[in-house]
Model the fold of this input.
Amino acid sequence: VVMKPSSGAPRGLVVISHGLWDSPTNFEGWGQRLAEQGYAVVLPRHPGSDQSQQRAMLAGKQPPPSPSELALRPKDVSAVIDAAAQGRLALGRPVNTQEVLVAGHSWGATTALQLAGARPITTKLQRLCDEVRDPSRNLSWVLQCNFVGSADSAALVDPRVAAAIAVSPPMRLLFDVDSAGSMKAKVLVISGSRDWVVPPGPEAIEPMARATRGGASGHRLVLAENADHFNLRSPRGESGGALRALLLAWFNSAARLSPGNPPELPLAGWGSPTHPLRDVTSALPKPPPKPQAQP
Done:
């Protein structure tokens, strides 16, 4: 799905990645709002893990998504950026493909994090996926533990990605969050307080506490009150839903920056009356010290 500004040259390119067994149609509201504000927006379909793949799987015609999808999805997005750079997406006017903005939901949010520079690693997956009594286990671990054999080969940062928004990303087991400070792209993570698929406690708060240690990384965490895993999406006609102002605030800030400076959320103007949004970055708990290597 391609959405263009109604007039003028695009102020930037945004690529939106859908989640597992989802579709671009559930995010056309995000795209619509961003296009209204001057962005060129592309919403690719990930054929190995979209709604069509789910229907084929339930009909017994295909197996579940392969672990290789962890690497294939960011390649889909990079291919979209390539196509935009080559003028093959009918965007109407040239668009800057060297400072691209990426957003994603659920597995699409994980994809956005990979492109921004988050590095998947197998070590933590292997250790925690076998801990069946771990009190932090949640439904997203089913997906993350599927990547035990593919995580180390899925570090696919795209240097053209300048900033990312990751909504409800499965991330606690998958990423080396201690390396977040070295990421070029700056990331805004959004998590719903009532998300039972990807709960904010283990999946967002703990990793972001490490990723933002010291306050210099530029990454941020926003919690959406009373939001679950699905009601932060926005089909066409909703003009962005509860996140409409927050998406713009982060991407507008990123688009104005000189290289190397982190985006900043304005003090007001990006909240939501339906799901109040709280920037909790400065209130994140101090992470426990890293275990020391044994001599």
In short: The mean pLDDT is 91.
